[in-house]
Design brief:
Blueprint: H1 2-5, H2 9-29, H3 35-55, E1 58-63, E2 66-69, E3 72-73, H4 78-93, E4 96-101, H5 110-118, H6 126-135, E5 142-146, H7 147-181, H8 188-212, H9 221-239, H10 244-255, H11 266-269, H12 277-284, H13 286-296, H14 305-313, H15 334-348, H16 361-370, H17 378-388, E6 396-399, E7 404-409, E8 421-426, E9 432-440, E10 455-459, H18 469-472
Antiparallel strand pairs: 1-2, 1-4, 2-3, 4-5, 6-7, 6-10, 7-8, 8-9
Helix pairs in contact: 2-3, 2-4, 2-5, 7-8, 7-9, 8-9, 8-10, 9-10, 9-15, 9-17, 10-14, 13-14, 14-15, 15-16, 16-17
The structure holds fe (ii) ion (2 copies).
């Protein structure tokens, strides 16, 4: 599309968003006749008119955290997030997911449309109310689509892609770790390909892949854990500005971080009860065993030093306590500190053989961030939280209405990480709903100006006999 039309859609898209934001702000402050407003309208119209002329029509769409201009997903960085975020909120307040502009658009149509966006919604069905008023506005060539129409198909598609990547990676982990246990040669190239798949998915479709980590399967723990730790490590690395090659390196070490467990007795790894002291000593050996296994592994072009250190250091704390024990000072590598955070988060939220009760993900994160005794680098924990939100996807919550809800999507606005999108699964009496209802907790009730619902507490899905992934992954 970009090449065919000769337009740089990235550039044009960002300019359009800036112009829309400018017009919105100008109209907020000044009457329509004002020169600032007129200038903003000129600019907006010129940009839109150009796209419509070249492409046949222009559609600005918000899907999840992203803006699209026609088929191009606009790359926005954090610095312009505030700007575009406030335009996104103006649309979302009215339940609008897409704005489509058709040939014949006249400059006079923009002011009435943008002014309408500025009015606060007063109905709990904001899109319908907006469209009722919009029908009588002098606007002929702009059409709107509700949020729900725009979200669903894309979500479905990206979940399907994420599911494929996830399932494939778990299979590779299973094959490879199985080979290690049997003492067979490992196909390193296959693992590298799986890690590349994960990195690519994190870069294009992070939220969907994070959703997959809720598919924890008790029987497959060792394999899903390796893949989950790989995903969370790459998510953190990306937040730190790693490039693709660094993310591959990091992901590879993360996938292999517990490889040494394949040299520990199977009965210890899967023991349903508490471990004895002797068994603990053996389990702790998985760090050194991991280092040695990677040292001897064929198929790397260079010695995988970073990955060896990740296997060896991932249970060390930043004060160098933890295990294996240190006799002299050392610097933990950044890669090791990242995998330690990813590992603890996934392990802390999973049902494992030697840990019956997983804790709600928000508690695990809070403890990791706030309790220095845990020994994680707080900057890295915070980086993880910007991706997972305060209430990670899959957290089961009790709302202030006593309804039960599963967190479905993190709020992309860094100020609203505690107000995710949730799926309500049972009513205030505890009766399961036939069909779940999606609620955006970042939204305020127009009648009261207060949040539609708030989370009062998180809880354990097992207590309710619920598998959260059933509600998130079709
Ligand atoms: Fe480990
Ligand atoms: Fe682990």
């Amino acid at each position: 599309m970009q090449v065919a039309s000769g337009l740089n859609m990235q550039e044009e898209g960002r300019r359009i968003l800036t112009a829309l934001y400018g017009t919105l702000n100008a109209l907020k402050l000044y009457p329509v006749e004002n020169a600032t407003v007129q200038q903003a309208l000129d600019e907006l119209h010129a940009l839109m008119e150009k796209i419509v002329r070249v492409e046949g029509s222009a559609e600005i769409r918000i899907v999840g955290d992203f803006f699209f201009l026609n088929e191009t997903r606009l790359r926005l960085d954090l610095t312009n997030f505030a700007t575009f975020g406030s335009f996104a909120r103006a649309l979302q307040d009215h339940g609008i997911g897409a704005v489509e502009v058709f040939p014949g658009i006249d400059r006079s149509e923009w002011a009435p449309f943008v002014s309408m966006l500025l009015r606060k919604p007063t109905s709990d069905e904001p899109f319908g109310a907006f469209m009722d008023r919009f029908a009588s506005a002098p606007v002929e060539h702009i059409d709107l689509r509700p949020e729900r129409d725009v979200q669903e198909p894309e979500d479905h598609e990206s979940l399907t892609a994420a599911k494929r990547t996830y399932a494939q990676s778990v299979k590779v982990a299973k094959d490879v770790l199985g080979d290690v246990r049997l003492g067979k040669a490992v196909n390193v190239r296959k693992v590298k390909r799986a890690v590349q798949g994960i990195v690519d998915q994190v870069l294009s479709n992070e939220a969907s892949l994070i959703t997959m980590t809720t598919l924890r399967d008790f029987d497959e723990y060792t394999f899903t854990h390796s893949v989950n730790v790989c995903i969370f490590s790459v998510v953190i690395g990306q937040r730190l500005g790693f490039d693709k090659m660094q993310l591959y390196d990091l992901g590879l070490g993360a996938l292999f971080h517990d490889i040494g467990k394949q040299r520990v007795d199977y009965d210890i790894i899967n023991k349903p009860g508490r471990l004895t002291d002797e068994e603990w000593i053996q389990l702790k050996e998985h760090t050194t065993e991991g280092l040695l296994l990677l040292f001897r592994m064929h198929g790397f072009s260079d010695m995988p030093y970073r990955q060896m250190l990740m296997a060896y250091e991932h249970h060390m704390k930043i004060d160098l306590t933890g295990y294996p024990q240190n006799k002299r000072a050392r610097d933990l590598t950044l890669f090791s500190k990242i995998v330690a955070v990813a590992d603890a988060f996934d392990a802390g939220t999973s049902v494992r053989s030697y840990q019956y009760e997983p804790r709600p993900p928000d508690e695990v994160l809070k403890e990791m961030r706030d309790n220095p005794k845990r020994g994680f680098d707080p900057v890295l924990v915070k980086a993880l939280i910007t991706a997972t939100g305060v209430y990670p996807v899959g957290t089961l919550c009790i709302l202030d209405t006593h309804e039960l809800a599963v967190v479905a999507q993190v709020n992309p606005n860094p100020d609203l990480l505690h107000r995710p999108r949730v799926k309500v699964i049972s009513d205030s009496m505890g009766v399961p709903l036939g069909e779940t209802v999606t609620l955006d907790l970042a939204k305020d009730d127009p009648a009261t100006g207060r949040p539609v619902r708030t989370i009062i507490k998180t809880t354990d899905p097992q207590k309710y006999g619920i598998r959260v992934s059933d509600y998130l992954i079709a």
